[in-house]
Write a structure and sequence with these properties.
Layout: H1 27-37, H2 41-51, H3 63-86, H4 92-120, E1 127-131, H5 138-145, H6 158-168, E2 172-180, E3 184-191, E4 194-201, E5 204-209, E6 214-218, E7 228-230, H7 248-264, E8 269-273, E9 280-284, E10 288-293, H8 298-313, E11 323-326, H9 330-333, E12 336-339, E13 381-382, E14 386-389, E15 395-397
Parallel strand pairs: 1-3, 4-7, 7-8, 10-11
Antiparallel strand pairs: 2-3, 4-5, 5-6, 8-9, 9-10, 11-12, 12-13, 14-15
Length: 398
């Protein structure tokens, strides 16, 4: 029997497709076919929604995401409300502290503004005030300081100005530059005090201040009522420099002697001789030579010598006694020696041979002062019996 042909769904016979590679369809055709058959409606809706849900279109809102965001915001606001409810009110101390801090901030801002204005706009130098100078004119001092008009009185270089003034003028021991509001520069001068002369040669002397500064050069000692220092030649000799020696002990010795006189109110020292630094001496009132010996305990030796002169040798203050006082060993032996002799003996007058000879003009108790002899032998020995001297220079009997 003949086989019956199979019919298709609608009674038509299906043609067999040739075996081999099937013809592929494009994605658009696939979608079109599925839409016609109603098989992919949900997918097309999803694709349509995705096309209108980009950042430039607000047609679509994800409601679930929005609800999550709103829940988070609500939870955060709730937590903040609870914090505020738990927070305690500020105490009076806290409120006071806050006010103080506020005032401090305001004050700081005001001060900052004031400082800026002071340094940039206000307080310009317009006047000068010079005090204390007698050797130099105010114009010279003002020109030397280097602070010109128009400079801010706060920013003006005051310390460099002081150095300029001192370095230019030898007789200015110190200079102090300050300001006076609103527009004045004040310059205070401390003038140097002449202390002594240093003999460089018979025709050259250096005037030294009490602080050791060379003030000027002089051809002779006339016109200066100052003690003369005779000793080693100084290393420096220009006005404005500070006198110095190769041996540092020389300056210490001079300072000790002059300072002792100043501290105790002694007057009348006329010469200090340190030609031999192991046998120092000074001359008092140009009539009593005081031998100090080595530069050791000079303050004690000077006070001892002045006590002996004032209380024993010339206690009546005649001002006529001359001689040599040796206190070089008084610090160890408590003994001093004095020879009453003329320090500057005059030549005996020429006598007529027919006239009888007279006694030598410079003779005391079997000892004749020649200016070179060792006067410690054969002279008048003064043992004052002092056991020690106090800090005021007065002796005490033991």
């Amino acid at each position: 029997m003949a086989k019956k042909k199979k019919r298709g769904l609608f009674g038509s016979t299906r043609k067999k497709q040739p075996r081999g590679r099937r013809q592929s369809k494009s994605p658009a055709d696939e979608r079109s076919n599925r839409r016609m058959l109603g098989l992919d409606i949900g997918r097309d809706d999803q694709e349509m929604l995705s096309e209108f849900s980009d950042d430039t279109n607000n047609f679509y809102v994800d409601e679930r995401k929005e609800r999550k965001v709103r829940r988070k915001q609500y939870a955060a606001e709730k937590r903040e409300r609870k914090k505020k409810e738990k927070r305690k009110p500020l105490s009076p101390t806290q409120r006071k502290l806050i006010r103080i801090m506020s005032y401090a901030v305001i004050t700081t801002v005001i001060l900052a503004v004031g400082i800026i204005l002071s340094l940039t706009v206000l307080f310009k130098t317009q006047a000068y005030e010079v005090t204390g100078s007698t050797k130099y004119s105010e114009t010279e001092i003002i020109e030397a300081c280097g602070i010109g008009k128009g400079q801010n009185i706060f920013l003006a270089p005051k310390r460099p100005a002081e150095k300029k003034i001192v370095s230019k003028f030898p007789y200015v021991e110190e200079a102090h530059v300050s300001f006076k509001i609103p527009d004045t520069i004040k310059i205070g001068i401390v003038e140097a005090v002449e202390g002594y002369l240093v003999k460089v040669s018979d025709t050259e002397y250096l005037v030294i201040s009490t602080r050791g500064r060379i003030l000027e050069k002089a051809a002779d000692k006339g016109g200066y009522n100052l003690p003369i220092f005779i000793g080693p030649k100084p290393v420096t000799g220009e006005p404005g420099d500070y006198v110095s020696y190769e041996d540092d002990t020389v300056l210490d010795m001079i300072d000790s002697i002059t300072q002792t006189f100043a501290d105790n109110g002694y007057q009348g020292i006329t010469e200090i001789d340190a030609t031999d630094t192991g046998d120092i001496s000074f001359t008092y009132d140009d009539r009593i030579k005081v031998k100090l010996g080595i530069p050791e305990e000079l303050d004690y030796k000077v006070r001892t010598a002045m006590t002996i002169i004032n209380e024993n040798i010339d206690k009546n203050k005649t001002g006529s006694i001359q001689g040599v006082l040796d206190v070089s060993r008084c610090n160890s032996t408590r003994r001093s020696y004095f020879n009453e002799q003329q320090l500057h003996p005059t030549e005996a007058p020429t006598q007529d041979p027919s006239q009888p000879s007279t006694e030598p003009a410079v003779t005391t108790d079997n000892y004749t002062w020649t200016g070179n002899d060792d006067y410690n032998t054969g002279g008048d020995e003064i043992d004052l019996g002092y056991d020690y001297y106090d800090e005021d220079g007065y002796g005490h009997y033991w």
